Amino acid sequence: MTTTHQLGFAEMTDLRERARRILRDHTFDETMDAFEQGNLDLERLLEELHIYHAELYIQQQALNDSRHITERALARFTRLYRELPFPVLLINAQGHLKEGNAAAQRLLPFDCRLFIHLAVEGQTRVLENALLDSRRAGRADCREVRLRGQGNSIVTADLRLIRLPEIDGDEAEIVCNLVDQTEQVAQREDLVAANRRLRIQEERYHVVADFAPDWAYWMGEDGRFRYVSPACARITGYPAAAFLKDPELLSRIIHPDDRDGYLMHLHGAHATHRFKPMRFRLYTRTGELRWIEHLCVPVTGDGGRPLGHRGSNLDVTEKVRLETALGMASEVIDASSTIAFHWAPEPGWPVIYASPNVRRWGYALEQLLSRRLSYLDVVHPQDCVRVVAAFETFIQEKRDVFRQTYRVCWADGSEHWVDEETRGVFGPDGRLLYFHGIVTDVTEREQAERGLKRQLDLQALVARISSRLIDVTGDTLEQTIDWSLERIGRSLGADRSYLLRLSNDHKRMDMTHEWCAEDIRAVIDECQALSLEHYRWWAERLAERDPVLIADVSALPAEATAERTELERQGVRSIVTVPMTRHGRVWGALGLDAMTRPRSWSNDTVQMLQVIGEVIAGALLRTESEVRLTASENLYRHVTDMMSDVAYSCVERPGEGFRIDWMTDSVEALTRYTLAEVREMGCWSRLLIDEDVGIFNDKVAGLAPGARADCELRLRRKDGAIRWLRATTECVAEDADPTQRRLYGGLLDITEHKSREAEIERLALVVEQSPSIVLITDIAGAIEYVNARFCESTGYRPQEILGRSVDTLRSATRTADENSEIWSALQRGEVWTGEFQVRKKSGETYWEYAHITPLRNEQGLVTHYVKLAEDISDRKALSQQVSYLARYDPLTGLPNRTLMRERVEQALIAASHADRVLALLSIDLDDLRSVNDSLGHPAGDELLRAVAERWQPLLRDEDTLARFSGDNFIALATGLRRAEDASRLADRIRDALAQPIILGEQGVVVSCSIGIALYPDDSSTAEELISHADTALHGAKIEGRGLHRFFTSALNDDLQEQFRTEQALRRAIERHELLLYYQPRVDIVTGRILGLEALVRWDHPELGLIPPGRFIPVAESSGLILLVGPIVVRLVCEQIAAWRNAGVALVPVAFNLSATELYQEGLAGRISTIAAEVGVDPDLLEIEVTESTAMRSIEQAVEVLSELRDRGFTLAIDDFGTGFASLSYLNRLPVQTIKIDRSFLAEIGSGGPGESQAETIVKAIIGLGANLGLQVIAEGVETEAQNTFLINHGCREAQGYLFCRPGPADRIEALLRGGIVEPGAEPID
């Protein structure tokens, strides 16, 4: 009888589980309890026990069969392994060789324990990387690795390493299969070499053309292209097929201004032109204008048959730009008068460096650097000893800066004044390496100053000579002339000065006076009766009243042979002579000779010499006239008691007027008429000129009896000359007839006196109209004369200042001691020269450079003081401005780097004496660039001034705040007691920026980063202290914004490491060592690959694969990111194109843009150009920017991102949630995607205290994306818990290690072909 049990599924499952526990645990207690309680069918339980036992028996049999099969397979595998014809190695997890099969034993020497030691030198790194890859990824391949073979041979082999799975807890092992490629590689190399030799002539042109950067082509005689290299697409944007199809395309895209020249070059009659390169411009497919350097040559076949021509077009746009920039830079450098030198610390100052504009001096740079010419060789010989002595003092006294002004000789022999400023440059060990000097040409300044001084000296000389000659008498004439010649010679640097007197017949010259310097031979006795006929060349110029200036006597023309012979006989090397004229007639000449060395006098000197000559001539003539007049008067005194030249008496006759009654015979000397001729005229009034007849009628003929009068009249002599005379007249009534009048009078010739007065007036006019300020006082300081220039400078009118004390003009800044010094020098009879301030009528002051000279009378007593001065206010102001700019920042008014360095050095000395702590704070504003970009540079300047105003009150009076450059400030804090004081000061500096700074109508809040270096802990020198503060600042900025950090030696090491990384990265970019890894972005529900993110890696030849975290920060801080970015874009586009050509289903690829790249002008255009060149659609490219990058300048970010979106690119915000973007700003950004930062996902499922907050943030971001219509992607998903959380809260797209690690393109390609990634699958990398 069969019992049927109707049991449900749940009951059946429970029953089976009980049966299994009974067999596993060997206990029935629980089962018996259930049976006794009526909860268990024992019969059914026994049935299930039988069934389960049968299943176990079947499984045991299957396991035994499987074990036998496995043992047989292992035996076969072991035999196969040992007898395989190709080498196989077994390696343990630590890389030790465990064994090798027979083929491996025959091929390789097993004389080492480590697998990597099988490689030859230089290949060890390859085997290390292969071991690492096989451990991580399960397998690794290496091609053509060079290994050590048996008998010291070299084996080239392909290697494949496969990681064996762990068994029963044993460590993993690696099997390495080797394929000996030594013979194949050798054969391949031989085959390649043979093929190259065979086809070198045929293929050379095409190989070079296809791979060279030049755009090469071959054009047939019919004008159609036979071949065009692929480089044409890179240069023009047009593919080679376009030129092959359309032969006119090239001429159409050439710039219209260059097209005719190109066609003439190509088809012109002058075939030789084709061998000369030409340049033209063309428009690329995108409209860009580029410069092309073109060269073409004819191609001929057998028998010289023309086959067209071949040519090359090289893109030289950048070269043209650099040539233009270089030309402009060269012009600026060449135009600069400042030259930089480096001198070795050796005798003669050998030059080890000179800036290129040293060629202004006429010296080749190689001439200086080769030490054929040292720096002291170009210093003027007269200044060399002084310069060397000053430099030795600078070295001995260990001064910081050597400053000196001296002359240098250019290669053309010209002399130039220079200012030198030199400092020593020392190595880390304190050893002097070289001297760094800045040499500035100040010739114009020196010439101007010396010219001004020379002009003032000449004016003073003229004034002194004039004052001496005005009152000269016959007794003092010779002494005064000798004194004047000596002053002229010494002042003008002559060895001889002299006067030449022209004879009355104008045929000869006599030297009348001579002064000679020491050791100069006198020639006055030899220079008598010099024939003007003999010295005709000189005489002709004298007759024309032209000065004769001869800088080099040997260079006189042939027609001056007589003059040159005489001058050379006397030993004269240079000469200047000026005519001495009176009343338009040449009287003689004033001359200067240079004997000891050649000399050249300026035009100003010659003109002033002419004035002196006229003054001397006037004095000589006047004195001679006075001597003659005195002799004549003495002679006449014996004849008449009248004190006049002519005495007369006239009687008035009715109807006839006055007629001469009697007159002395001297009338003939006055008028050249005889006494009889004058009597026939009736009255001497007939000799008067018409203009003076009225004066005669009034002052002479109109006198009443008893009246007396004097007047000055002009008469015309018989020879036509006009003479001045003074008429003294007395009228009396005739005794016989009282109605008749009689005149008694005397006529005195005052012509010479009038000439003297005119001369004085002319000299007064010279002084009055002089460009110099002229002031004359008496010895008590009362002002007696001022000229027009004085009135113009001070604002006083003559009547307002004459008679007043000179102290009226004294400024408040001139001390009593300074004033006393001036008066003491003048009272000693000395000339005082110097600068002082003068007070104007308005109360303002100005600067004068003055010469004050005592004026002596005939007895040698000082009667007056004469001041000749120049207004130098502009020059002083310019000097003060230059001095200010050299030490202060013109924008903020703070000390600059130069002044700050001096104050740091002073503070270090004071701190060492007082045993105090000194802190140097290097401060950078974090946000200046954003302000400049968004509000403009004027707003940035205003921000810098506002910041300086806030920080200045935080420091003590003895502390210093300076601006070094850009947004970098330096604060010097002295008198600190401990390092914590510096930290508190840094906090106050940051807190001072907490309140907004108003720029226009907008408030801006900025932050700052601060680096702190301390004395004596960090350094005891100014330069090192500043450098250490900058290093600390760099460390603070790396850690974030708004921080301050103290200097440590580790920071300095980090900075050095960063520098080395930067240099290595530059080489890596040049050597194309950057490559891309890709990480899939998947639908976390279905596993479908939705996109990829490109991640840059650095394949270092020695260090292997370097992750971006080690070099991207360095690239961003150094600006190299601007080179890395375009490389990444191009590599992404080229990989997409490669996958497309291979038939792989394409998905969008994302890449990151740094902040530096985002705000570069023309970014969208450059990315579009690269995509177009490679042929990739923009919708396959996704551009990611971080939230903080977009917020740095929101307006500009919106503009740039909008342009990228308009061009078809997809945009995403990376690391969302870590920045400070507001919802309003986020809503303005034209992005389609936001990516949740991995830091939030890392907390989920961790069980940590921050898990709850992280979950809330992630849910909020997901909800925010949904509300704004944005796609949300999670980054860094690594656990199933994180994956489940995202699915449960509506985020379906993610990337992370849970799905796939980043990997190279060839490994990602396999995933793309499958299209699906399973969570927890074998990692790729």
From TrEMBL:
Domain annotation GGDEF: ranges: 916-1049
InterPro entries registered for this protein in UniProt: Biofilm_reg_signaling, EAL_dom, EAL_sf, GAF, GAF-like_dom_sf, GGDEF_dom, Nucleotide_cyclase, PAC
Gene3D superfamilies in UniProt: 3.30.450.40, 3.30.70.270, EAL domain (3.20.20.450), PAS domain (3.30.450.20)
CDD domains registered for this protein in UniProt: EAL, GGDEF, PAS
Annotated EAL domain residues: 1058-1316
Domain PAC, residue spans: 276-328, 399-454, 709-762, 832-884
SUPFAM superfamilies referenced in this protein's UniProt entry, alphabetically: EAL domain-like (SSF141868), GAF domain-like (SSF55781), Nucleotide cyclase (SSF55073), PYP-like sensor domain (PAS domain) (SSF55785)
Transmembrane segments: none
SMART domains in the record: EAL (SM00052), GAF (SM00065), GGDEF (SM00267), PAC (SM00086), PAS (SM00091)
PAS domain boundaries: 201-260, 362-398, 759-829
Pfam families linked: EAL, GAF, GGDEF, PAS_3, PAS_9
Superkingdom per UniProt: Bacteria
Full protein name: PAS domain S-box-containing protein/diguanylate cyclase (GGDEF) domain-containing protein
